[in-house]
Design a protein that fits this description.
The complex is a heterotrimer of chains A (247), B (581) and C (268). By secondary structure, chain A is an all-alpha fold. Chain A has helices at residues 42-76, 99-131, 146-170, 179-207, 215-245; strands spanning 79-81, 86-88. In chain A, helix 1 runs parallel beside helix 5. Chain A starts with 41 loop residues before the first helix and ends with a helix. Chain B is mainly α. In chain B, strands 1-2 form a two-stranded antiparallel sheet. Chain B has a two-stranded antiparallel ribbon with strand order 3-4. Chain B is globular, with a radius of gyration of 24 Å. In chain C, helix 1 (2-21) packs antiparallel against helix 2 and helix 2 (35-66) runs antiparallel to helix 3 (83-112). Chain C has five helices and ten strands. In chain C, 38% of the residues lie in helices and 21% in strands. In chain C, the strands form two sheets. A five-stranded mixed sheet of chain C has the order 3-2-1-5-8. A five-stranded mixed sheet of chain C has the order 4-10-9-6-7, with helices on one face. The chains are: A mainly alpha (247), B mainly alpha (581), C alpha+beta (268). At the A-B interface, helix 1, strand 1, helix 2, helix 4 and helix 5 of A face helix 6, helix 7 and helix 8 of B.
């Protein structure tokens, strides 16, 4: 089947239609995998979706890079205490709740499940295209619902984050208590919001079969969500390290 | 498995939508979305111009009583300044060239049937629209719109008690900008993915028109910059409403402690200008692409140094991220850092100069046709030179000591970013109007519009350099308190009169635009005899841009007056020419 | 049309340049030691950039007229460019821009890379909505502590700054609404702000520096001419920004000593 490369190279015509002059009505991508007349083929759609995700991850990364630079700057910055006319640093590190380590484990596990879900539905998409050959049929096999498990773990992570914030508050660290606590809430909160987006995408992918989307489409949605999910997991580890070791 | 897809994000229904809502309101067609952005910007520019007129009146006659609005207080003046700048920069300069014309013509110019993600495209417009509504809402809440300038420096912008308008109005301002960031990022996503992944066969990167290069690099700048602005806005909202102290050190307002401490006002400036400097290139790059395009078409000559132009766009984009500190020479930043930023800033003048040389080189030994788009392209070059020349003054910290926060600065940026970019929008309008609406705009009215605008904007903004040299500070609501400013009031009055006349001249454009949509002369498919892909298709283009056919590209975008060719232009889809070099 | 464009572009260029050359509206007279070299560099930059400005606009006007479409008389020179020419003008532009900048950097370095001299006259300048206050350390040479809780602008200069009279160093601090300094001495300015960012701008001294809350920024300048010079706020600070201005009085050393002694005496 077509390759799933996502790299776009300069000076490389993306479409190999092998013909010159005007062509019959077809969207770019040529090749037909039975996904219907006038639509790009699966490989093109997957590549395009992945490229879109790569592009979309860039501003998210910039958001956290920006927060990180604010974090470093704020940490190191002395300001003038008018009472003493001296420069003082007011950075008090926050003791992070141990719960965050458990949450991290949950998120990493969810990433594993997410990857399994991604490969699972990829396989289904391949089988489905085989099924379109006349006379062929595939025996329905017992499947572990990796997608739903990922969704459950994702929700568990978010719940765990919420509980961690409660613990912080119980220890007297609210959003505005110290600059360090502000950053803890800011970084973990922004991450959680973005993860919620991933949870939503999983939910949509999960009910997509009910919405009568084809398995090819669902496979693309899950693929893109999976990479997003892995990015969110990696980002979480970075945030945890930043708060723990650079705090 | 279903063999037929329902309309999904990544595919494009080959049948055009029916019904008013699907066709004109929530359209997925990049052409309709482009027009929506364009008309949003058109509404925004008239709001912005109106605000600037009020500013100009108040500045020279502070006690004037205006109809509807009564007398304008100093804080109201500052509100006008803030909202004029914000609306113009975001909802006009970042919206019309990129969201408007980019959306409409990028897919067509690369031979694609639509953007990569049409649903996302539709959402990006409505998000931007929502941002505009929220921005306007700031005028109508208790306390009114904020007075902290489009740059929103903390602590002024971070403390609700720092002045009138700094309450809910300032929160709405931040929220509006945050919404705008998200809309812009969605748009950037589409532009980049489409340019990389959906070019037609034969449309290599180095055969793309310079307009496409400009939109592409502009989108990359936006992708990297708007996330940072969003982050700054979030931190500012937290300082204002949650009691954090990212930007606010220990301060008192009217002798009252505010509860903040330890924050850094300079942090806001760094974050804002890390976005803010790329933003000015976001505002100008599409117009530069447009200018290149039009100079070539109307000189009947290839653009001089296509490769150099591409490299210059890329260099401007890259260096644009390394110069933000030149807005902060006087901020308390380290003078060593200032020196470093200053050298980088001079560096970014080089690719801009290269582009200017190449524009002149395109004109030389050409065969110039003075159609209205060309007038604005020529005007663009003049304005760009004028605005660019004042840059090296500000880029040298030792001169910036005198000029920072004086009228020299708005003189500089209005010419090079405001007016030049607007000329790019006008040029694009006159040029692509026939393709979008099937009719020509009225040439006679266009010429009047050009002369009003060209002479008028010089009359407004060139004198600001003199005011700056003489020491007139920015954002002063009146000139009555400082003795030496009294002598500058006549020059300010001249600017105000010029502003009235220039803005009156814009009504000519407005009339021309709407009248021509219904009554303009019928246009052929390629009235300018241009070579790029939008001129190969019907007028207006069909729903999928090329009527079910996919173009195959064999030539570069600027093959005019090719020796030995049958006509003085060779379309990109014509049989391949073998140029001399 | 080509001719009209040429005429208008050239007219605008000529008119703009005229007002710069004639200095119709120009820098105020320079009254600080740094002004001469700064103004000299202004002139250099004006000449260099002015030449480029005029050349580019004149060329633009000339080209659009000269190469207008004259029907069959016009002959287009088909060309995609000239790489050698690109390299030449890229190098020239770089040399011009970077060279100009490096030349100014030595002035910048001499102004900003060094701290004030040991025997400079110290004045602490505090900006707040919407006034400037000036504090002199007095004979002990030390500035007393200030406390934000003690700030009361309605009760005079010391109270406006929140001067803590319990600190012995505060006793001889003089706070005024006018900045008085002796001529030909280096003045060290310590810039502070109570509420929002302000900017201390003395056009005649070629001096500008933001006053940032949370920072005490040390700068210096040397006035070389007696007189009265206006001080402006040059960073948007709220509704009173336009009227936040003060006065710098440069006097002889004797007058300065007398004035300061009189202020000290008033405090007894």
């Amino acid at each position: 089947m077509a390759s799933f490369s996502t790299t776009a190279t300069v000076d490389d015509p993306r479409i190999s239609l092998g013909d010159d002059g005007i062509l019959p009505p077809v969207r770019d991508g040529g090749g037909d995998d039975g996904s219907g007349p006038g639509l790009p083929d699966y490989a093109t759609r997957l590549r395009r979706a992945r490229l879109g995700l790569l592009v979309a991850l860039t501003p998210i990364l910039m958001l956290f890079v920006s927060f990180s630079s604010a974090y470093v700057m704020r940490q190191g910055l002395p300001t003038l205490d008018p009472r003493t006319n001296a420069l003082v640093r007011d950075w008090i590190p926050v003791t992070l709740p141990k719960l965050l380590l458990i949450n991290t484990g949950v998120l990493i596990l969810s990433s594993v499940f997410m990857e399994l879900a991604r490969r699972q539905i990829k396989g289904q998409a391949v089988l489905a295209s085989a099924e379109s050959a006349p006379g062929a049929s595939v025996v329905d096999q017992m499947k572990i619902p990796w997608l739903s498990l990922t969704l459950v773990l994702g929700l568990a992570f978010l719940l765990g984050q919420w509980m961690a914030w409660r613990q912080l508050a119980a220890n007297g660290f609210y959003v505005a208590t110290t600059p360090s606590s502000s950053f803890v809430y800011l970084l973990t909160g922004t991450h959680a919001i973005h993860l919620m987006g991933g949870v939503l995408a999983l939910f949509v992918a999960g009910i997509a079969s009910l919405l009568r989307r084809s398995v090819a489409t669902r496979s693309i949605v899950v693929d893109v969500t999976a990479w997003y999910w892995h990015f969110m997991a990696g980002l979480w580890i970075y945030i945890l390290c930043l708060l723990e070791f650079a705090g | 498995m279903a063999t037929h897809e329902f309309a999904a994000q990544e595919s494009h229904a080959h049948a055009a939508p029916q019904g008013f809502i699907r066709k004109w309101v929530f359209s997925l067609d990049h052409k309709v979305i482009g027009l929506q952005y364009y008309f949003l910007a058109l509404a925004a520019v008239f709001v912005g111009m109106f605000l600037s007129l009020l500013m100009r009146i108040h500045l020279v006659t502070p006690t004037a009583i205006l109809p509807f609005l009564g007398d304008i207080k100093p804080e109201t003046y500052l509100t006008l300044v803030t909202m004029h700048g914000t609306i113009m920069v975001f909802f006009v300069l970042t919206t019309a060239p990129q969201g408007g014309f980019g959306n409409y013509f990028l897919p067509i110019q690369i031979g694609a049937p639509d953007m990569a993600f049409p649903v996302l495209n539709m959402l990006s417009f409505w998000t931007t629209f929502l941002g505009f509504i929220v921005m306007l809402a700031a005028f109508f809440v208790a306390g009114g719109a904020p007075l902290h300038g489009w740059t929103g420096y903390a602590p002024l912008s971070a403390l609700q008690s720092s002045g009138p308008g700094e309450g809910l109005g300032a929160d709405l301002w931040i929220i509006s900008i945050a919404i705008f960031c998200i809309g812009a990022l969605m748009g950037a996503l589409n532009f980049i993915t489409t340019t990389l992944d959906m070019r037609a066969k034969g449309m290599t990167m180095m055969r793309m028109p310079l307009t496409v290069w400009a939109w592409f690099v502009t989108a990359i700048l936006g992708l990297l910059a708007f996330g940072v602005l969003l982050s700054a806005g979030i931190l500012l909202l937290m300082d204002r409403n949650l009691g954090t102290s990212f930007f606010v050190p220990l301060v008192t307002i009217n002798g009252q402690l505010t509860g903040h401490k330890g924050g850094s006002p300079l942090l806001w400036q760094h974050l804002f200008w890390f976005f803010g400097h790329p933003e000015v290139y976001i505002a100008i790059l599409p117009a530069m692409g447009m200018c290149s395009q039009l100079l070539s078409v109307f000189s009947r000559k290839p653009i001089f140094g296509y490769k150099a132009m591409v490299y210059a766009i890329l260099a401007i984009g890259l260096l644009g991220f390394m110069v933000w500190g030149h807005h902060m020479f006087m901020s308390g930043m380290s003078p060593y850092t200032a020196f470093a930023f200053s050298i980088m800033t001079m560096g970014i003048g080089v690719p801009s100069a290269i582009k200017t040389f190449n524009w002149l080189g395109t004109l030389m030994r050409g065969r110039i046709r003075f159609a209205s788009p060309m007038l604005f392209a020529i005007g663009f070059v003049s304005l760009f030179v004028s605005g660019g020349i004042s840059g090296p003054f500000l880029a040298q910290p030792v001169l910036d000591i005198q000029l920072h926060d004086t009228y020299f600065v708005p003189g500089h940026f209005h010419l090079i970013m405001g007016v030049a970019s607007i000329f790019g929008i006008f040029a694009a309008t006159y040029y692509w109007f026939p393709k979008m609406f099937g009719r020509m705009m009225n040439e006679s009215m266009a010429r009047w519009h050009f002369w009003f605008s060209f002479i008028g904007t010089y009359a407004i903004f060139m004198p600001m350099h003199y005011l700056g040299m003489a020491g007139m500070p920015r954002r002063y609501s009146q000139m009555t308190e400082v003795t030496y400013l009294h002598g500058l009031i006549p020059l300010q009055k001249f600017i105000t009169y010029a502003a009235f006349v220039t803005i009156a001249g814009q009504l000519i454009f407005l009339v021309n635009l709407f009248w021509s949509m219904f009554k303009g002369k019928q246009a052929s498919d390629n009235p300018w005899e241009a070579t790029t892909l939008e001129w190969t298709t019907a007028t207006p283009p069909p729903h999928d841009n090329f009527g079910g056919q996919t173009p195959v590209v064999r030539n570069g975008p600027y093959e005019y007056s090719v020796p030995g060719a049958p006509r003085d232009y060779v379309m990109q889809t014509d049989p391949e020419i073998k140029p001399a070099h | 049309m080509g001719l009209i464009l040429l005429i208008i572009i050239w007219l605008i260029t000529f008119a703009s340049t005229y007002f710069f050359v004639a200095k119709t509206w120009w820098l105020p007279v320079g009254a600080s030691a740094a002004a001469a070299s700064i103004d000299h560099h202004f002139t250099t930059t004006f000449i260099l950039m002015g030449v480029v400005f005029v050349a580019a606009q004149v060329a633009l006007g000339y080209l659009v007229w000269s190469y207008r479409d004259r029907g069959t008389a016009s002959k287009v020179a088909y060309s995609h460019g000239n790489t050698s020419l690109e390299i030449v003008w890229t190098v020239l532009t770089t040399v011009l821009f970077v060279g100009m900048n490096l030349a100014s950097s030595s002035i910048w370095a001499s102004e900003r890379f060094r701290a004030a001299e040991a025997n400079s006259v110290q004045v602490e300048v505090t900006g707040m909505q919407f006034a400037w206050y000036f504090r002199y350390p007095g004979p002990d040479g030390k500035f007393g502590a200030t406390k934000p809780e003690l700030e009361d602008a309605s009760a005079g200069g010391e109270a406006a700054l929140g001067l803590d009279m319990k600190d012995p160093a505060s006793k001889d601090d003089v706070v005024t609404g006018t900045m008085v300094v002796p001529v030909n001495r280096e003045i060290e300015v310590i810039l502070r702000a109570h509420d929002v960012i302000h900017s201390f701008f003395i056009p005649t001294m070629r001096f500008k520096q933001d006053a940032v809350p949370g920072l005490a920024i040390h700068m210096h300048f040397t006035p070389i001419q007696t007189g009265e010079y206006e001080i402006l706020c040059a960073e948007l600070c709220g509704l009173g920004h336009y009227k936040m201005h003060g006065m710098l009085k440069v006097v002889s050393q004797e007058e300065f000593d007398k004035w300061l002694a009189a202020r000290e005496a008033e405090k007894q």
